[in-house]
């Protein structure tokens, strides 16, 4: 890369036109400063693009967390609504929570929960 830059500079600024050694040093310093400025400008532009992506990603994660919280609440309310509790072999314990005992009501409740999850 350095050789290509040197050849490029050599075509633009032939060394024959440089009369003193100080002119050559100043020319090389000017070219180096220009290249550094271009590199810094490109890096700054890339940093701006990445910042925008990070901001958008953070917003999406925040919204996703809210959605997951809502789904968790819906899921936690379904813990006592197990269809197996309607079977004849189900034996509740003394610490069992109150359950829906009607199959139609339980089916309607679980349908509502499924609809809420599909809406979210």
Strand content: under 5%
The chain-level structural class is mainly alpha
Mean pLDDT: 80
Helical run tally: 3
Task: Name some characteristics of this structure.
mainly alpha, 3 helices, 120 residues
Would you kindly provide a written description of the structure presented here, covering whatever features stand out?
- The protein has 120 residues and is mainly alpha-helical.
- It has a domain at 1-61.
- Helices cover 71% and strands 0% of the residues.
- The chain has 3 helices and no strands.
- The chain has helices spanning 2-12, 21-77, 103-119.
- The radius of gyration is 36 Å and the shape is rod-shaped.
- The model has no long low-confidence stretch (mean pLDDT 80).
Short account of what is shown:
With 120 residues, this protein is mostly helical. It contains three helices and no strands.
Task: Record the SSE blueprint.
Layout lengths: L1 H11 L8 H57 L25 H17 L1
């Amino acid at each position: 890369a350095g050789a290509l830059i040197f050849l490029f500079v050599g075509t633009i600024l032939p060394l024959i036109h440089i009369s003193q050694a100080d002119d050559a040093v100043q020319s090389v310093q000017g070219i180096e400063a220009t290249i550094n400025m271009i590199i810094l400008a490109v890096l700054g532009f890339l940093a701006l693009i990445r910042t925008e992506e990070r901001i958008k990603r953070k917003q999406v994660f925040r919204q996703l967390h809210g959605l997951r919280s809502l789904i968790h609440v819906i899921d936690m309310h379904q813990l006592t609504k197990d269809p197996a509790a309607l079977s004849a072999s189900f034996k509740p314990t003394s610490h069992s929570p109150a359950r829906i005992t009607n199959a139609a009501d339980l089916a309607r409740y679980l349908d509502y929960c499924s609809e809420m999850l599909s809406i979210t």
